[in-house]
Amino acid sequence: MSHRVLIPVELQAPPLLPSGVLAQRFAGHTMGTTWSVQALAPREVAAHTIASAIDAQLQRVIEEMSTWQPDSHISRFNRAPAGSWHALPEAFFTVLDAALTMAVDSDGAFDPTVGPLVDLWGFGPGSDQRRLPHLPDPRSLQAARLRCGWQRIVLDRTGRRVQQAGGVHLDFSGIAKGYAVDLIAQALRACGCVSWLVEVGGELSGCGVKADGQPYWVALERPPQDAGPGMVVALHDLAIATSGDYRRYVDHAGQRYAHTIDPRTGTPVRNVLASVTVLHRQCMVADALATVLTVLGEEDGMSFAQQRGIAALFIRRQGQGYQETMTPAFAAMLS
């Protein structure tokens, strides 16, 4: 099957690779998923140095932002008493600040305080089940919704601290993996790597070219059983993130409930979209935007993306198949 090709509009001829670089590959498991790195590094940069730098950034995200770790910064904040103030480490502050900015811009389609609803619907820590024993009753749903709301977050940007309003349960699952990709990319640059492709849980970022002079070509994720023509993108100073309702879900009485929660209703997103893919220079932003557009749905999501010049691909279910729609910024990359 032939593939359509996406090339960044502002792509410039990459500089010549310096002599004496070696291709390095690394992979592992983190945050309940997999990660992988391809990198070109000078010979004098030892593989264990790069591996240690990657591991340090992954551990940083886990220690600060994983709700699955009871002693992480986010877990301690979520348990803290009302009115308490919490000094934030740099990474945590960066993600919370970005998440709140996205919440404001999306009018609540993205909300980092959605944790109580994530737990209620069976997607929180310790809930790796595929079947939901029973749907949340209206009283439980209302109680969880009352604990949510990004407007309840008081962030002191000057002092880099946040106040626990009482019962607030932060959840960065819609943005943390993308941020981890960005952190690893920064670490690779600091190690002296001249090009790389970083992937964490399906979110990717690429920089520069491979040893053969080609960019890092990546196939866009598509829903299972989608027989349409695929796409590949040149990840040259570019990141990609996909939100799909097939990635994680629970079943109840023959109905499937996807893991993406609509903060505005308190229930899992249920619309015609099977997946949304976003291209952006920052993987953290691409990750969050993919969630926003999924929550908004095809019509409102397309309007939101067009107004902001976002490169996005929407794939919706239609009958027994799929149909795609792309924003002008995405279509402009088609070669």
TrEMBL record:
It catalyses: L-threonyl-[protein] + FAD = FMN-L-threonyl-[protein] + AMP + H(+). The keyword Transferase applies. PANTHER family: FAD:PROTEIN FMN TRANSFERASE, THIAMINE BIOSYNTHESIS LIPOPROTEIN APBE. Belongs to the ApbE family. This is FAD:protein FMN transferase. The keyword Protein biosynthesis does not apply. Magnesium. Can also use manganese. Mg(2+) binds at residues 174, 287, 291. Its cofactor is Mg(2+); Mn(2+). It comes from the Bacteria. InterPro entries: ApbE, ApbE-like_sf. GO terms for molecular function: metal ion binding; transferase activity. Keywords: FAD, Flavoprotein, Magnesium, Metal-binding, Transferase. Its EC number is 2.7.1.180.
